[in-house]
Design brief:
By secondary structure, this protein is α+β, with helices and mostly antiparallel strands. The chain folds into two domains: 9-131, Aminotransferase class 4, branched-chain amino acid transferase, N-terminal domain (D-amino Acid Aminotransferase, Chain A, domain 1, 2-Layer Sandwich), CATH 3.30.470; 137-291, D-amino Acid Aminotransferase, subunit A, domain 2 (D-amino Acid Aminotransferase, Chain A, domain 2). Helix content is 32%, strand content 27%. The protein contains nine helices and 15 strands. The strands form two sheets. Strands 7, 8, 9, 10, 11, 12, 13, 14 and 15 form a nine-stranded mixed β-sheet that branches. Strand 14 (259-266) and strand 15 form a beta hairpin. The longest helix has 18 residues, at 277-294. The N and C termini lie far apart (42 Å). The structure holds N-(5'-phosphopyridoxyl)-D-alanine. N-(5'-phosphopyridoxyl)-D-alanine binds next to helix 7 and strand 13.
């Protein structure tokens, strides 16, 4: 029963091999205890890493963030950077290279249910990757619909935690409103999307909320800022008031899965300048960067 259920899911998502605790397995053979604290408490952290041309995108940045999330929840990294690289690259290779999206998570492991951290248990490490066709520019031109919603999450949004109930509910709220993302508002300030970071453009200045406990330090966000600095685009990392959303000339969201996506409307009201010149410029810079990753000139 379990196997046939697993097989249905497996053929659905097209995953041939998963990594589980040091082993490379067919997904239907990967067994995780129901007493795993990832299942019981959501006691774990994760990463989503894009793959372009068979190469892991910004792997050192993702590993650094992963190790930061692990440190924040008092878990020692189960693998070294080199061990991560080897294991993840093997998954990517076995999936046949090309463009992929890789998911990995580390949970605290299996123990009798008790909230506080148990001693001397082994973390559970799970990863898989799947082929992904990243959106072409012309499909992004019109801009995506988003809504705003109260940021009902906790105060450690800088940890990439698998406890995602608030984000799940917020994304569902967006979908029910015919939107692709919920832009979150905390105390009158814009934080980020339920699963993305946010950028505004006003008078040719690129504006994004600062890092800290209220947002996830996005790897795509970092790259956009890096590219902006390199190409002399004016940047402000500062608090953004909710009211600035309707005054913005352009709005984008960024994430490993959505890359840089222009926002066409917020709560049904059009963002006038989308997709604007700054988006066009950043999209081209980002695509060029991706190309250098594909060719092994960057990572
Ligand atoms: N989410 N903020 C939140 C709350 C996120 O969940 C994500 C990514 C981001 C963007 O980070 P990055 O550029 O590193 O992907 C910002 C992933 C993609 C997810 O949960 O699937």
């Amino acid at each position: 029963m379990t196997t046939s259920l697993n097989q249905a899911i497996v053929s659905d998502i097209g995953v041939n091999t998963v990594y589980l605790n040091g082993e490379f397995l067919r997904p239907e053979l990967a067994m995780i205890s129901p007493f795993d604290r990832g299942f019981i408490f959501g006691d774990g952290v994760y990463e989503v890493i894009p793959v372009f041309g068979g190469r892991l995108f910004r792997l050192p940045h993702h590993l650094q963030r992963l190790h930061g999330s692990l440190a924040a929840i008092d878990l020692a990294p189960p693998l070294s950077a080199e061990q991560w690289r080897q294991a993840l690259q093997r998954l990517v290779d076995e999936a046949g290279g090309g463009d992929q999206s890789l998911y990995l998570q580390v949970t605290r492991g299996v123990a009798p249910r008790n909230h506080a951290f148990p001693k001397n248990i082994k973390p559970t490490v799970f990863a898989y990757t799947q082929k992904k066709a990243f959106a072409a520019k012309n499909t992004q031109q019109s801009g995506a619909a988003v809504i705003t919603a109260a940021d009902i999450r906790w105060l450690r949004c800088d940890i990439k935690s698998t406890s995602l109930l608030a984000a799940v509910m917020l994304r569902e709220q967006a979908e029910r409103a015919g939107a692709i993302e919920a832009i979150l508002i905390r105390d009158g300030l814009v934080t980020e999307g339920a699963a993305s970071n946010i950028f505004l453009v006003r008078d040719s200045v690129l504006i994004t909320p600062p890092k800290g406990q209220f947002i996830l330090p996005g790897i795509t966000r970092d790259l956009v800022l890096e590219l902006a600095h390199k190409h002399a685009i004016a940047v402000q990392e500062r608090n953004v008031k909710e009211g600035e959303l309707s005054q913005a000339h352009e709005v984008w969201i960024t994430s490993s899965t959505n890359e840089i996506k222009p926002v066409g409307s917020i709560n049904g009201i059009a963002v006038i300048g989308t997709p604007g010149p700054m988006y066009q410029q950043m999209y081209d810079l980002y695509e060029r960067y991706k190309q250098s990753v594909r060719e092994g000139r960057a990572e």
